[in-house]
Design a protein that fits this description.
heterodimer; A: mainly alpha; two-stranded antiparallel ribbon; 11 helices; 72% helix; B: alpha/beta; Rossmann fold; six-stranded mixed sheet; four-stranded antiparallel sheet; 10 strands; 39% helix
């Protein structure tokens, strides 16, 4: 029994970090209505920024947030303005220009290979890392401290994002644009500014995930790839654009990954993850918390 | 000098031209109606004024400044406010948030608490329903939110696109009564309607739009007495 409990805890903790990353993706999807396939590469970028900040300055890993969050926000904002916005303008007669998917996939490949070129293929472990191998012992259960902190940062970020969207002027404008772009522009909201702000926030959330991961996860140029695909599954599972959906979807995937190998060969877990994805597409395409009708 | 002055605009959706060489003006303090059947180009005209569509020719001047080709948010900032056809509320947002978003512009934001009280005084129902999602309201209430949201922007000129659309007769009366109240409080109103009788009754002047062209214009009284309008629009 304890054996399962250990796996459940591991699954929930890791899953909540998946959920954190998915939060950024679901926000971007909710506003732009197109998936950003470079999201995993943004995570990779955030991890490298965190890694280099810590190794060059010796800061505590979590203090690297001070640099990672604004840097990733600006990167996302600039990415939207320079690469995605021109596509939206050129294809102004469609709501979700498919070309964006191709462009973001291109950015994914360029960023990953740029990282390979600049930093080499090495798997880099964070140094100095005061959290390395730190465990919380509760009887026979071991809880990884950096994963626990990652889970807490996921909950705090989800709470802060919810508050921001509900209670601030920009947050309300983001919701308005995601519901009806044309009506929002009649309220005096610039959809281009809102798109860029949403992309900036989504990207800085990828950065926060990076900071949460680096203390226990190696950094390498293609580190984003497995996360990117999982994240897309989570967003669909939870409901596109839903914050609780992203968190819950993340935990479900985390649990499948940690409990799967207990019952079957580990390679099957991937099959279960994608099986779940397909099942949802067939049975409930709007996801757990998605709205049934199209906004 | 008119508040809004449109001269000789052409508007197209791609290859399809919907407005031809149209000129019109609205003076400060007036209520002006634009009437016409389905597909006459009424909504396209309002969309062009509010910057959602760009005219391919002609000029649009508001408060003596060119606004054709300006971004919708800049036009809103000047106080030229468009309440779109079909209400277009933010369905998954509360009534209060819908109204708040109406006061997004810099100019309106500073006064939003006072404006909100005024909107609640005009539509007490909206105060009761503050926390309800807009999609759960009845058609009449939704129209109140749409108009209230427009008022939150502190319009100098309020453009209403078919506020009576899809409403029961008793609600239509109420909506028109409120439009009259808005006009009496000093807001200039440009009203687009298919309900010709009600809209001309509260207007000073009117334009008849047919096939994207102004077919007729005059005082509301002249238009109501016109035999063509009587047969084509009033069914007398």
């Amino acid at each position: 029994m304890l054996y399962y409990l250990q796996d459940v805890i591991d699954g929930v903790l890791m899953g909540s970090i998946y959920g954190l990353l998915a939060l950024g993706l679901t926000l971007i999807f909710g506003v732009l209505k197109v998936i950003n396939f470079a999201h995993g590469s943004f995570l990779m970028l955030g991890m490298y920024v965190a890694y280099w900040t810590v190794s060059l300055t010796g800061l505590h890993p979590y203090l690297s947030l001070i640099l990672v969050v604004p840097a990733m926000f600006l990167f996302g904002y600039g990415f939207q303005k320079a690469l995605v916005q021109p596509i939206f303008k050129a294809e102004s007669d469609v709501r979700e220009p498919i070309t964006v998917i191709i462009v973001t996939t291109g950015v994914w490949y360029i960023l990953d290979n740029l990282a390979l070129l600049l930093f080499g293929p090495d798997y880099r472990a964070l140094t100095p890392n005061p959290l390395k191998g730190k465990m919380l012992e509760l009887g026979e259960i071991f809880i990884s401290l950096p994963k626990l902190y990652g889970c807490i940062s996921a909950l705090v970020t989800a709470g802060a994002l919810t508050w921001f969207l509900r209670a601030t002027r920009t947050g309300r404008a983001i919701r308005a644009v995601s519901l009806d772009r044309e009506a929002a522009s009649l309220m005096g909201i610039s959809q281009w500014r809102i798109f860029a702000v949403a992309m900036g926030i989504g990207t800085s959330i990828a950065g926060i995930s990076g900071v949460a991961l680096t203390p226990f996860y190696n950094v390498y140029p293609t580190v984003g790839v497995p996360f990117d695909v999982k994240c897309f599954v989570i967003v669909v599972l939870g409901g596109l654009g839903s914050i609780p959906g992203a968190m819950l979807g993340g935990v479900i995937i985390g649990l499948v990954e940690s409990l799967g190998p207990v019952f079957m060969t580990a390679t099957w877990t991937e099959a279960i993850v994608y099986g779940l994805f397909l099942l949802f597409l067939f049975v409930k395409p709007s996801g757990l918390f998605g709205v049934k009708y199209d906004w | 000098m008119p508040l809004l002055e449109i001269s000789n605009i052409d508007v197209s959706y791609g290859d399809v031209q919907v407005i031809y060489d149209l000129s019109l003006n609205v003076n400060e303090g007036e209520v002006v109606s634009i009437i016409g059947g389905n597909g006459a180009g009424k909504s396209s005209l309002l969309k062009t004024i509010s910057g959602l569509l760009k005219p391919s020719a002609g000029r649009i001047r508001f408060q003596d400044e060119d606004v054709q080709g300006a971004a919708p948010e800049d036009i809103v900032e000047r106080g030229l406010i468009h309440v779109p056809e079909g209400r277009r509320l933010f369905s998954l947002m509360s009534v209060r948030d819908n109204l708040e978003v109406g006061a997004h512009s810099r100019r309106a934001r500073a006064h939003r608490e006072r404006t909100l009280r005024e909107v609640h005084a005009m539509f007490p129902r909206l105060l009761e329903r503050s926390d309800q999602l807009a999609m759960t309201l009845s058609g009449g209430e939704q129209q109140m939110v749409a108009i209230g949201r427009g008022l939150m922007a502190m319009p100098r000129l309020l453009m209403l696109d078919e506020p009576s659309l899809g409403l029961a007769p008793i609600l239509i009366k109420e909506i028109f009564r409120n439009v009259r109240k808005i006009a009496e409080s000093g807001t200039t109103v440009l009203l687009v309607e298919q309900d010709v009788r009600h809209s001309l009754e509260l207007s000073n002047r009117g334009y008849v739009l047919e096939h994207g062209r102004i077919a007729m214009e005059g005082s509301a009284k002249e238009l109501m007495d016109n035999p063509h309008i009587k047969t084509a629009y009033l069914g007398i």
